[in-house]
Design brief:
Blueprint: H1 2-45, E1 48-54, H2 64-75, E2 79-85, H3 92-101, E3 108-112, H4 116-121, H5 130-140, E4 150-151, E5 154-155, E6 158-164, E7 166-170, H6 171-176, H7 187-197, E8 199-200, E9 206-212, H8 220-232, E10 239-240, E11 246-247, H9 252-266, E12 271-272, E13 283-288, H10 293-299, H11 303-309, E14 310-313, E15 325-334, H12 341-353, E16 355-356, E17 359-360, H13 361-369, H14 376-381, H15 391-398, E18 402-404, H16 411-426, H17 432-449
Parallel strand pairs: 1-2, 1-3, 9-12, 9-13, 15-18
Antiparallel strand pairs: 3-15, 4-5, 6-15, 7-13, 7-14, 8-9, 10-11, 16-17
Amino acid sequence: MYSKTIRAQAVVVAMTMAMVVTAPIMADTLALTVTLITPQAQAAAAPVKLVLFSHYEKVPPMIGLSQAIDEWNKLHPDIRVEHQIVSFDGTWYQKLATQIAAGQTPDILHIPSIYLADLVGQNVLSPVPDSIIENVIEPHYVPGSLAFTRYKGKTWGIPTEFQPRALAYNLGLFEKAALPDRSPKDWQELVTFARKLTRRTADGNLEVAGFGLWTATWAINGFMGAYFAFAWSNGADPFAGPDNTQLSLTSTASQEAVEFLAGLNLREKVMSLATTDFIRDKLGMYIAFGPWERGNMLVQEAGAWYQQNARSGLIPPGKTGKPVAPTFGWMFSVSSTTKAAKQAWEFLTWLNTEAINGTTRMGTVLAQQGSIPVTRKDMEGQAVAKEPFMKGFIQALLGGFVRPDPILPQQDATMAVVHKHLMQALRGEKPVGNALADAEQEVKTLWRSKK
């Protein structure tokens, strides 16, 4: 009995000692296990963050993008998109450039095509992967909408805003002047239409201008689009060559185009060098900056007027006989420095191609602003595509008349130089030939100074 008791106590002592010795080891092991697993678990649980840079503010008609991003974030908690909004004003590009210089390039950038030369030259963007081109872009997008996303043989983004120029006209004023509901067929008919539309007061002041252009310094791209439309359709190529740096502003065809426009103002006196009076029935025709002007008209509370009077058609061609619709646009591009390119393209595919009730989310965003649809689904499903004002822009796209604006070195500065000299010619401040020669020389000097 005694021996059994001793043996039992010995066993208890041995077990107790084992527990005492083992406890720290188990604690250390447990602590080590927690130390090794917790960061992994935390990493697995943390969502991927994507920063999207755009000018689409959270106000109509641009609010739709923020709403789509909110929807994505609810549906995909593992990939969170943060919308960085910068107003599109005179400092927009400088703000983006500052971020890039500071090493804070956003993962996704919504950018206009005219800045591709600068951004590609600085290695800011990644080319669109072949898999996205083959599986996302080519099956879903209208072919003509892809032109402005290409530069130096590569595609740099998914197209969004597609902004061909067209001739906008006021149907009410056309009817009063007994003109047909269409744009002029050629330059001579444009002169005829403009004469019939122009009205003056008893003392000779211009009451209704037959024709107009965007000319303000903030709208240089609108003015240059008009110049390219008339020059290209007349056989000129002011910025030629594979990189658009072979200058021929002074060619005969270019000079004829500018002389025609100057003649509308100086000789015919049927021209307004502003477009702000279009919705007030003070302007019969003008070269529209792009279909985005739909939203601009509606914001000015011209809804009923817009439906009744706003129309568009192809821009009358010069001696080639073929209309040209100079086109700029915007695209979603992915940064070359992002660590989440796979997730960025996943989000962009969802945003731009997945349909709800026959239209894509981005298609709805663009329709709210008046941009014409660029996907096949949206071309069929978006009601905006059927509005009379959209006719000329869609004719340009489907008819194969679109041509991307030239992507140039020092884009803004180059366009500003040409705009300045052409305006001097249109106002009669210098002969057309001198204006074009001065513009060409100043552009050459600008480009040399930046090399």
